[in-house]
Amino acid sequence: MIEIRNLTKSYKKHTALQDVSLDIKQEMFGLLGPNGAGKTTLMRILATLLTPTKGSVRMGGIDLADAEQIRPIIGYLPQYFHLYPQLTALEFLDYVAVMKGMNRPSERREQILYLLEQVNLTDKARAKIRTFSGGMKQRLGIAQALLGDPRVLIVDEPTAGLDPEERVRFRNLLNQSSLSRTVLLSTHIVADIESSCSRVAVLSRGQVAFAGSLTELQACAEGKVWEAELGEREFAAYKPHEIVSARRTGHGMLCRIVSESRPAGDSIPVRPTLEDGYLALIGGDRRD
Ligand SMILES: Nc1ncnc2c1ncn2[C@@H]1O[C@H](COP(=O)(O)OP(=O)(O)OP(=O)(O)O)[C@@H](O)[C@H]1O
């Protein structure tokens, strides 16, 4: 469905994306990566808001450069987006629908009411957006992205800042949306990928460090995850990204460690999680 070939984007001297190639089918595809890895840059290119320096993208066989053909098939929820606080949910969605070229009022009305129901905001249809919680705003954001029934939905870090209940609700909404379209979800939150995506790519410093199934990503930490009880000095000797979790015990800290080498002393190898796989892969490349 989406074929990304040798995509490069430079902002003056800084190269944010370098030679990125990916194939995304009709599926829910996750994009992981630390801060500054280039996720937003890639998403903005796919949403036709940025022009790549080099490379090409085709969606459903249409070249991304063909803006007139490509725009109607894309729905985009940016990381930060502006909602008009004085408008009601209905007024806002009607405004976006008009912007998307939906000219028939009856068609707009029908789709808006359907989407408000999908995102569970029917009872807030006539409430002003300024009264909405963060989760309600994100759900309204998804509704605006789904106006026009796009074949590709691009969502950039949509669950950051949501409470656990809203995050689960939002993930379910994305899962539901992915039944009939391609969804590309960018996030830092490994649990979001785990619960929703069939495949994932990891960007690191603008390059594809990994692309494959969740099981394959998990396997990147095979033989590199350990549980060990560490004293204060041993604990301090590890790099921050190597200790995934630590719990105080009577004698020190019981730590989960992602490391190429077996920790000294009493340590036992443990089965990696998806997060371990991600951490083993990006390791010291993390900038945050
Ligand atoms: N308009 C710009 N001009 C110059 N540099 C930019 C611009 N936009 C992004 N960058 C740089 O490009 C790199 C990639 O940024 P991008 O926002 O795509 O990363 P990201 O993976 O989405 O990060 P985050 O998770 O923090 O949102 C960063 O080093 C960033 O500082």
From TrEMBL:
The UniProt record lists the ABC transporter domain at 2-230
> Which GO MF terms does the UniProt record name?
ATP binding; ATP hydrolysis activity
Q: Which Gene3D superfamilies match?
A: P-loop containing nucleotide triphosphate hydrolases
* Coiled-coil regions, chain positions: none
Q: Which UniProt keywords apply?
A: ATP-binding, Nucleotide-binding, Transport
Q: Which domain of life is it from?
A: Bacteria
InterPro entries the record matches: AAA+_ATPase, ABC_transporter-like_ATP-bd, ABC_transporter-like_CS, P-loop_NTPase
Similarity comment text for this entry: Belongs to the ABC transporter superfamily.
Name the UniProt record assigns to this protein = ATP-binding cassette domain-containing protein
* Species, as recorded: Paenibacillus lutrae
